[in-house]
Amino acid sequence: MDVMTAFALKIIASVCMAVDHTGAVFDTPEYFRLIGRIAFPVYAYLIASGCVYTKDIKRFFIRLGVFALISEPPFLFAYLWGYPHYLNIFFTLALGVGCVMIYEKVKTKANRWVAVLPALPLLLIGEAAGVDYGAAGVGLIFFIYFAGPENKAARAAVLTAGLIIIYRGAWVCFLFAMASVMLIFFYNGKQGPRFKWAFYVFYPAHITVIGAISFVLSM
User: Fold this and answer.
1) Is 140 among the domain residues?
2) For residue 108, what pLDDT is reported?
C-alpha cells in the first residue's frame, strides 16, 4: 500500500539529515552517521521527481543554487568546529537539476540516449569542485530522472545501483541507505501538506544551530 507522501518523505529525510550532522560535529555513537545515510537518496529522488513536475525548471535550478550559496557560510562555520569539509548538499542538488536541464535541451525522440552525453560533464564538475557525494551524487539525481521517477521498478533499480557506487566497500552504510529505497517504494505520488520554503530554510538553519552549539562547547 502506498502511504508515503512527499511531505512525509521530506520530514523523514530532514530528521535523518539532522541526526547525521549532529553525529558529524559531535562525539556521538556511530549509528548517528548511519541513520544519516537515509537522507540523501530521498532528497535525490524528490529532486528528480521535482524536475518532472516543476513548471519552471530554470527557476528550480536557480532556487537550489541560491540556497547553496546561502548555506555555505554556516556549513563552513560548522566545519571549523568539527564538520568534514566539502561543498554543501545544495550544490549537489543544483548540479543534478543542471544535468536534467541540459538533457532536456538537446533531447529528441531519436537521440534520447545520446542526449545523456552533454549532461555528463556536470558530474565531473561536481567531483572536481568537491560537492557532497561527488559525481555519484549528481549522477544519481540525473539517472533517476532519466529512468523515470514515476516507475517504481526503475527508480528502485537506479537508487540501488547508485548506492552501491556511493558506498562501495562500506556495506553497513549501504544497508542503512537502502532503507530509503523502501521508503520511496511506498511513495504515493501525492504532495501532502505544502511547506516548501520550510524545508529549504531548514538546511542552513539547523547547521547554524549545530555549529553554534559546537562553538560554545569548545570555548
Assistant:
1) yes
2) 82
Number of domains in the chain: 1
Instruction: Determine, yes or no, domain membership for 10.
Output: yes
Amino acid at site 168: R
The Cα 17–Cα 24 span in angstroms is 10
Evaluate whether 2 touches 123 at the Cβ level (below 8 Å): no
Q: What is the pLDDT of residue 31?
A: 94
Q: Band the pLDDT of 41: cuts 50, 70, 90.
A: very high
**For residue 133, what are the domain limits?**
6-218
Contact partners, residue 71, CB within 8 Å, separation at least 6: 88, 90, 203, 204, 207
Residue 175 CA: distances (Å) to CA of 37, 45, 179: 9, 18, 7
Residue 163 placed within a domain: yes
